[in-house]
Amino acid sequence: MEQISGAASSTSTDPGSPDGAAARRPGVGPEPGAWRFVADAQEAAVPQTRHAVRDRLLAQGMAGERYQELIDDLLLIVSELVSNAVTHAAVVSPRLSTELAIGEGWVRIAVEDLHPYRPKALESDLGNLGGRGLLLVKSVTLQAGGTCDVERTEGGGKVIWASLPLPAPRAAEPDGHLW
């Protein structure tokens, strides 16, 4: 498993390959797998986690224009979820973990902390400048055709997750070129 704070290793379907990831054929889509990033619940965790997730998405074959909007959405979601965990759960949960999972046709990001409070998405309030991170996560997820939720963990904390569909391959023109 990958850790932001130190040595990294990843789970993979092909441990014999140099980076631990199976070889990917162009156009097939990203390589499935699951990776966990652990960080101290401090402000620095937000950019560290965002960069680790971005790097892993690219390493799994999600480079290029086809995936750009999805990656942007995922990085916004992970930034909001980690920021919320740092801001609201650090007192009870000095460490947090983020899991990135890629499956057949979907990608899921989940942030787990030990705080028992299950937040709800706040509605827009023009008088309040903060407190709408979860609403933003929910909106981005739904607009992308995905789902999100908050669940209790066995240890009494919570995990907040969002699952988004992978973009469909672009159709080839009759002459074999992509649109």
Automatic annotation (TrEMBL):
It comes from Kitasatospora arboriphila. It comes from the Bacteria. InterPro entries: Anti-sigma-factor_SerPK, HATPase_C_sf, HATPase_dom. Residues 72-167 form the Histidine kinase/HSP90-like ATPase domain. The keyword Transferase applies. The keyword Glycoprotein does not apply. This is ATP-binding protein. Keywords: ATP-binding, Kinase, Nucleotide-binding, Serine/threonine-protein kinase, Transferase. One of its GO terms (molecular function) is ATP binding. Residues 1-33 are annotated as: Disordered. Residues 1-15 have a biased composition (Polar residues). PANTHER family: ANTI-SIGMA-F FACTOR RSBW, ANTI-SIGMA-F FACTOR RSBW-RELATED. Pfam families: HATPase_c.
